[in-house]
Amino acid sequence: MKGTHFIALLAVAALGLSNLNAYASSSTLTNQVTRKVAHATLAKQDSYRQVLLERFLKYTTYDSQSSEKEQITDVQIETAKKLYAEIQSFGLNVTLSDHYYIYVEIPSNVKGNVPTLGFSCHYDVTPDNPATGIKARLIEKYDGQPIVLENGQVIDPAKDNGSYLPTQIGKTIVTSDGTTILSADDKAGVSIIMTMLQTLAQNPGKKHGKIQVVIAPNEDVGRAAEFIEETPYNPDIAFDFDGGVDGEVVVGNFNAEQVLVTVKGHPGHQSHAAENGYLNAWFPACVLGAGLCPVTTDGKPLPLPNKSVGKQGYVELHHIDYPANTPSVAVMDFRLRGFNQAELDQWKEDLQRMIPSVEEAYGVEISTEVRRNYGNVGEAIHPEAMNITRRAFDAAGVTPDFKEERAGTTASMFLIKLGKGAFTIFTGQNNPHAFTEWLSEDDMYKSYRVSLNLIDEVVRMKKAK
After folding, report:
1. Each residue's pLDDT tens digit, 165-213
2. Closest of 408, 406, 437 to residue 424, by C-alpha
3. pLDDT of residue 168
4. What share of the chain has pLDDT > 70, as a percent?
């Protein structure tokens, strides 16, 4: 395709970002960066633009898939060690936890009380599609035409997988070669945060409050918060860099809970139940399930999933298990979703009210267990987070596009452990987890500028008091 060429990835891999000085000296441009940068003004931020892109290309060569079946994969561990060594080379205070969370703390260099600012991202990539031996393809001055990859994959500006491409004409984008994913989810976020850390390390005169950073494993298998308490990550205001395209900010999401309801009957031969006390657990379970899962939205705050749109939540009886070697026992697995936690709490109250009547009617015993999966960051966010975000975006020349997701985020998983929410900031990733995944270099760079502007805005909070 016109304007397309493959990156010489072996040459990039040879740079070895674990030694930043060696990396910087590997090209004329990055030599210029280290000589010129003294303060993090907009002009100096521009000096890091190529560094950011080269770093992202480097990170795509790191195998780091997570797994549903393993606590942590060997390739994640290797990636964590590489990122840890790279941050050490910056001269920053960095810790690698027992479960391979990378934690960085930078002390405040301003007088007075300034809220602690947090940044997060994740270094693992999805196990859903191949992600070993990624060959990134760089397209400079994109010409607006469909992008034909290997493996029969096409990113087409006339289709959903390329609908954002028309905004990138004349700009730089990155794709895979079509045989794997690209891993922009979330290596774009990692690249942004790492370049932000490099900028702070090389510009000690830039004013900032205390900054905490965590780079987590296992996000793509839903376990990013599993061992977050191993790190002292507990900022006052936090931002997660793992989002979509130009200006998107996730400011709210579903609360998510799993409610397990166990119905215990009594084993025995059905034909002699009157004598042996046999009690079936499945029928009362079905009665309870039907009563708790309405088929319409009339008068009910939590309908079934197919009746739920927009800001509506839902409840679903996801499945019923018959545990091995436990006759006459039924375990119902309910999934609750809602932007308003009060809706979920109301459903659980309805459940508790129904249980005694079902137990009495059918002679069974019913117990419940509630597991909270993630929370709505919008219900636990710092009161100044929205204003800080608006100003940081404005300074970067980006219009914020605030969204509420009918899903969860890394920040929403952290919320369960930390009790504090965080907004999720765009990073330029498109079609995550797909062979047609691609990255907007322009968006990634804008996101990097936003990260530095957020630091500035938090410092200004002190002056505003």
Report:
1. 999 999 999 999 999 999 999 999 999 999 999 999 999 999 999 999 9
2. 408
3. 98
4. 88
Counting other chains too, the contacts that 268-274 makes at CB distance below 8 Å and 24 or more residues apart are 268/328
- Helices 74-90 and 184-202 cross at an angle (nearest 10°) of 20
* Residue 211 contacts residue 196 (beta carbons within 8 Å): no
Please confirm whether the linkage preceding 186 is cis (ω < 30° from 0): yes
Those residues whose C-beta lies under 8 Å from the C-beta of residue 166, and which sit 6 or more positions away, are 144, 157
Residue 3's pLDDT band (cuts 50, 70, 90): very low
Q: CA-based angle 439:445:447, to the nearest 5? A: 95
Distance CA 93, CA 306 (A): 49
Closest CA to 103 of 217, 14, 199, 15: 217
Nearest-Å Rg of the Cα atoms of the chain is: 25
For residue 205 the two structure tokens come to 């005169």
Residue 247 half-sphere exposure, CB side, CA atoms within 13 Å?
Answer: 13
Using CA atoms, how far residue 442 sits from 30, 131, 399, 439, in Å, is: 18, 24, 14, 9
Give the Å distances, CA to CA, from 275 to 267, 268, 288. 12, 9, 26
**pLDDT at residue 301, rounded to an integer:** 66
Global confidence as pTM: 0.84
Determine contact, residues 404/255, Cβ cutoff 8 Å: no
| Least-confidence region, from 46-60, 145-159, 218-232, 267-281 | 267-281
